Amino acid sequence: MSTKLRWGILGCAQIATNAVMPAIQASSSGTLAAIASRRLEKSREVAGQFGIGRAYGSYEELLADPEVDAVYIPLPNHLHREWVIRAAEAGKHVLCEKPLALTAAEAGEMVEACRKAGVHLAEAFMYRHHPRMKQVRELIADGAIGEIRGFRGAFTYNDAEDTGNIRFRAEWGGGSIYDVGCYPMSAARFLLGAEPEAVTAHARFSPEHGGVDMMTSGLVEFPGGVSLIFDCGMWASNRQELEILGTTGRLYLPMPFNAREEDADFEWIRDGADRETVRGIGANPYVRQADDFAAAAGGAAPIVSPGDPAANMALLEACLKSARERRRVELVPRSRI
């Protein structure tokens, strides 16, 4: 591997061109080496925009490129499994958009394929790389709010009029749970350092939008009586928030999942004290994600364990099952290793 991680991009989705690719270029650890699309003219257009040396008209050609060390996969959810496994078999480290797969079984296959190939696999939850999350974890570890008793998280937006959106195709892994519900659920697991025992969810499934869950609310049960109360939606007013409740105080994070340089501050509310605004360390989380990924690909310890994506997928799958079947769903105890 060269001094900088040489990235290949599988697809020209907006999340790639608007956020991840500029972040790789701005990082200290990576460079854009190649891009592929199923339309060569499209990959050439994006390559010209970013000054990328090689453009391919198929994903297979990019994976065969010996001068690509890692790939970023922003493809629709139902294509993640195939191309993560094929990338691993080609010896490439893999950063894949969330959610990693459509089921926990698929995610397990992907994790195992990357382990077997000796490559690093990460799910693109960029918010976990924002320095504010490290500040929050340190406050919790230092006992700033006592023992954690629960979480409250929300991520909603309204895109219901865009009926051709791929997020409204159930067979492609569409719906609010997979698109934005994954954020508060992954955050609760990340901050608590534990896996859930059960979930109960209630959703609005819309025939106008491919039968996907357009709005979901639910309760995720963790060991010790700790819970996450969440809601997520693609047909509701825009909002993001995360609250961590402890025995002696709480932390409130506005914009917990899309914070950048300018909106990193959060609130620390202690019993018997005024609300205190904590000055968060601002950063572009996509740049931090690229640098953390490169470090892990080089052998450093990742911020989450290799098995984390499969564990998170098990929760998302159980949540969707609960909403469809209108019942509480228990999760099989699983390791993060």
From TrEMBL:
It holds the Pfam family GFO_IDH_MocA_C3. The keyword Transcription does not apply. SUPFAM superfamilies: Glyceraldehyde-3-phosphate dehydrogenase-like, C-terminal domain, NAD(P)-binding Rossmann-fold domains. Transmembrane segments: none annotated. GO terms for molecular function: nucleotide binding; oxidoreductase activity. Residues 5-122 form the Gfo/Idh/MocA-like oxidoreductase N-terminal domain. InterPro entries: Gfo/Idh/MocA-like_OxRdtase_N, Gfo/Idh/MocA_domain, GFO_IDH_MocA-like_dom, NAD(P)-bd_dom_sf. Residues 134-251 form the GFO/IDH/MocA-like oxidoreductase domain. Keywords: Oxidoreductase. Belongs to the Gfo/Idh/MocA family. This is Gfo/Idh/MocA family oxidoreductase. It comes from Paenibacillus spiritus.
